[in-house]
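Quick bug: Proteasome inhibitor PI31 subunit output formatted oddly.
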Amino acid sequence: MAGLEVLFNCVSSSITCPQDVVVCFVHWEIVKSGYKCLGTGDEPKDGEKKTELLPPSWNASSELYTLRYKSSDDRSSVLFKAITVDSSMIFNLMDSATEKVSDLTINVSDYVNVENLQMFDSVFKNTEDLAQKVKTSLLPSAKGESTANSTRDRDRGRDNNTRRDTQPDSDPLRIPTRAPPSGHKPNWPDPLAPFAAGGADLDPFGGRGAGGMIVDPLRAGFPRSGFDPSGGIPGVLPPGAVPPGARFDPFGPVGRHRPGPDPDHLPPPGYDDMFM
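Here's what came back:
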């Protein structure tokens, strides 16, 4: 426990209770983890300097101890509090930047010999166990975890930026571009022909690569019946009268027998009454 003896001898004359001994020990563990003490109280004061020693009036109250620490590289600040509850002590350590709090509760008599409060050689008990509890339960919220969290957050932000750069569509707030599908070329008019815009609509036969205004039922792509005009129409056209594949609009009903009249084509009642 290098350094603890020097610290204890500096404050031994002011130690009045077992709680002071425990706070001195925990203070030294915080200092060993890379922090130095600024002073007492919740708020900073003028003229404070970082030191490994305990500040004046650090044990003004044996019921509540409040100390402030700052890391050696000035990147982290923590607030330490120790509260006495009967024969136990509750320690709280809060990171001022992240407001994360860690705590530890111990039984004072397990680690302090009450009969030898001013004797360093015999005042402490089970120091290795107490040091282990302080490191595992109290200090992770301080520099180690704070630095690890900041590094983890920085790496996560770098990964997110890299993923956003390599996969622009992964951003849920990004409005996708109206780009044509891959491999599909838009049917833009020739820029050298200023009057070509709308030409496909003006060409009734669709000679410009787009559909015209005249619908050919034989070439429209829709399912068609088995009627083939090139085979002739019995009683109307002989076979071969219509070339194969030629456009053909029937000029009459297909078949020998005309179907019955359409109900919509019936004459009105009394149409042949000359007196109407």
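Actually, after a second look the formatting is fine. The first helix runs from residue 4 to 11. Closing.
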